[in-house]
Amino acid sequence: MDQTSERDRLVDAAYRALVATGGASLSVTEVLRAAELSTRAFYRHFASKDELLLALFRQDSDRVAARLRRAAAADPPTAALRAFVQAMLRITADPRRRQRVLVMSSEEIARAKGFAAERQRYHALVQDELVAILERGRADGTFPLARPSSDAGWIRAAIQHAFDEQITGSAPATPDEAAELLTGFALRALGARDAEPAGG
């Protein structure tokens, strides 16, 4: 069997096993049973259960980062910022993606050695995309008040807060409504020429 296929099967089996326990625990034995692979196959790819959990988190965080990167490529910068916020919050409206978010934020993954660094890597990817949007807007005059590095951090924090509200079910608005409100707030703070909601 191709080693890439082995690795993919182990990661997929780990996700299914975490779903089955509500993210509370992961048994390597159960992963191997579900993947129909041996202990030797496991150690060809991962030195420990923690490495497997981090690989699962990285796979998902890279998928989200790629989704956000595509949104950030929109033009002009106002459209890019709106698309970026929408892309993030709409994850919570999709049942399958929502379930993956809950698994990726589970206690078992959070306990994995190296998780804090891996989570920080993901946050840096997200913030870098926001910085790039704001730099484009400052360069072309769309965001005259922008301070890209610091403002990106505040905007990311606001997005994360809105995201967490959607995930926990405590949000007072739908994902799209929250995205529009948050985007409007950010555009006004950036001094955007186009600070009105999409469609007026």
Automatic annotation (TrEMBL):
- Which ranges does the entry annotate as DNA-binding region? 27-46
Instruction: Return the protein name.
Output: TetR family transcriptional regulator
Q: Residue ranges of the HTH tetR-type domain? A: 4-64
Q: A Gene Ontology molecular-function term?
A: transcription cis-regulatory region binding
Gene3D superfamilies for this protein:
Homeodomain-like (1.10.10.60), Tetracycline Repressor, domain 2 (1.10.357.10)
For this protein, the record's InterPro entries field holds: Homeodomain-like_sf, HTH-type_TetR-like_transc_reg, HTH_TetR, Tet_transcr_reg_TetR-rel_C_sf
Q: Which organism is it from?
A: Amycolatopsis mediterranei (strain S699) (Nocardia mediterranei)
Q: Which SUPFAM superfamilies match?
A: Homeodomain-like (SSF46689), Tetracyclin repressor-like, C-terminal domain (SSF48498)
Q: Which Pfam families match?
A: TetR_N
- Keywords annotated in UniProt: DNA-binding, Transcription, Transcription regulation
